């Protein structure tokens, strides 16, 4: 399987079957983020215990790349220390997605990352 095919399949799988999609009604922290360029929007819900992300969920709407990115990042941050989340880079997100995206789609790919970067200031 070529990298490009893997990338497309990974994005489509997470878009069609997003992991952790939903709401945590008793969340410790809720962060909304909107991409004003295209209207993609995401809300993340976090349960934090002893400085770690114990549970995470997200809701929202957007293109395949933004939903896939939120799904993949939500899986990736569970059980991680809040203090380490600031180390996640855009390059990390692209690796998790399976490859590069077009420059015009970077804001879509990084929408969930913008939420993750806001956790430390809100927790």
Question: Could you explain the architecture of this structure?
Answer:
Helix 1 packs across helix 2. A hairpin with a 2-residue loop joins strand 2 and strand 3. The chain is built from 5 helices and 3 strands. It has a 3-stranded antiparallel β-sheet, with helices on one face. 42% of the residues lie in helices and 20% in strands. With 123 residues, the protein is of the alpha+beta class. The protein has a single domain, classed as Sufe protein. Chain: A (Alpha-Beta Complex), CATH 3.90.1010. The radius of gyration is 14 Å and the shape is globular.
List keywords for this structure.
globular, 3-stranded antiparallel sheet, 3 strands, 42% helix, alpha+beta, Sufe protein. Chain: A, 123 residues
What share of residues is helical? 40-55%
Number of domains: 1
What structural class results from the helix and strand content?
A: alpha+beta
Q: Which topology does CATH recognise?
A: Sufe protein. Chain: A
Largest sheet: 3 strands, antiparallel
In the CATH scheme, the class would be Alpha Beta
The overall strand count is 3
Please give the count of helices.
Answer: 5
Query: What is the 3D form?
Result: globular
Tell me the radius of gyration.
14 Å
Based on the structure given, which CATH architecture is correct?
Alpha-Beta Complex
Order of helices and strands: HEEEHHHH
Distance between the termini: 41 Å
**Biggest sheet, spatial arrangement of strands:** 1-2-3
Low-confidence stretches: none
Mean pLDDT: 90
Beta-strand portion reads 15-25%
